[in-house]
Amino acid sequence: MNLPPLPTTVIGSYPRPKWLREAITLAKNGRLSREDLQEAFNDAAITVMRDHQVAGIDVPTDGEVKRDEMVEFFAERLKGFRFYGPVRVWGTAYYRKPSVVSKIEYNRPMLVDEVEFTKSITYTPYFKVTITGPYTMAYWSYNEYYKDRREMAFDLAKAINAEIRNLVEAGAPVIQVDEPAIHSSAEEVEWAVEAVNESVKGINAKLMLHICYGDYKIVAPYLNDFKVDQINFALKIYNYKPLKLFKEHGYEKEIGAGVIDVHSRNVESPEEVYKDIKRLMEYFPLEKIWINPDCGLKLLPRNIAFSKMVSMVKGVQMVREELKKSGIVGK
Ligand SMILES: [Zn+2]
Fold it and tell me: Are 153 and 135 in contact (CB under 8 A)?
């Protein structure tokens, strides 16, 4: 991949434009046709891609605007799941927790349409597609069929692997497996890593893994065992304390460093991002560092999400300028 030093990317999700949310409601009430809703989804993907382009993101996504939720979307499309009512996750946020009631099997492509469309609108050959990983899928579902969660996760891994193969076939150059739950259980983490590796087995694309909020100590000893090129983490919210932990465990892959707190509406300044990157460079070699927000930007107001991306890119550009002046990067 031909990218500048400190390549910038996003984790995946981006706020849905208000008009898309309105269009979804209209369609639910039978006042907008399926075709019109599809057109609205496509227009939203174009809009998000354009926001990424204007902000200067090197490896963009379509903002996952066509997906409601990161577990539900896949559970609805794989064989073996059924849905009961919504469960409360926190405060007033609900999600429809799926339940596994028979053997999980790969039915049909889930994101191939999304990849094909993204490919047709992208401003760079290096766009990214995200998919929820087997452990997080298993951890966030009820199990009414398998002996244990491990068995469930490995069948999920097979299905996800089949899908990723199709995504690469459809032209996805960068695949990110999302595993926000991977460090939820110290007893399960060892086989959870194997399940992730099973899901990316034999895949010929740049592979990333996303891990965010939680206790990184649980997963730190296994980080080098993941068969991916890069792992990106939420770091800003922890004031970069996990860097020391990763270093202690001899972390040697590319690191996607979260430098934007997606839980705060306060927009980081480019200077703050610049300083944070300088700290990162004390821990890891320049060629192994990528820059991203801590997590998806979905829950922020769109203008704030956009401003945060702009600051992130500007902070990176300040470091790039400095590198150029010092002759370290001669481009
Ligand atoms: Zn995340």
Answer: yes
Q: Is the pLDDT of residue 95 over 80?
A: no
How close is the Cα of 64 to the center of ligand 1, in Å? 13
Tell me how far the alpha carbon of residue 326 lies from the centroid of ligand 1, in angstroms.
35
Tokens 């990161």 sit on residue: 70
- pLDDT attached to residue 182: 98
183 labelled binding-site residue: no
d(CA 59, CA 71): 23
Q: In the predicted model, what is the mean pLDDT of the chain?
A: 96
Torsion angle, CA of 146/217/174/68, rounded to 10 degrees?
60
Question: Is 249 known to sit in a ligand binding site?
Answer: no
Tell me, in angstroms, the distance from the centre of ligand 1 to residue 203's CA.
23
Give 12 Cα–ligand 1 centroid separation in angstroms.
9
Cα–Cα dist 136/141, whole Å: 9
CATH architecture of 18-326: Alpha-Beta Barrel (3.20)
Number of helices followed by number of strands (H, E) in the chain: 11, 9
Known binder of ligand: residue 295? yes
pLDDT-derived band at 235 (thresholds 50, 70, 90) equals very high
DSSP 8-class letter at 141 = S
Distance 208 CA to ligand 1 centre (A): 13
Cα separation values, 298 from 70, 239, 246, 268, 294, Å: 12, 22, 27, 17, 12
Cβ 65 vs Cβ 40: under 8 Å? no
- Segment 113-161, tens digit of pLDDT: 999 999 999 999 999 999 999 999 999 999 999 999 999 999 999 999 9
Calculate how far, in angstroms, residue 255's C-alpha sits from the geometric centre of ligand 1: 15
| CA 234 – ligand 1 centroid, Å | 7
C-alpha 69 to ligand 1 mean position (Å): 13
Domain map (residue ranges) of the chain = 18-326
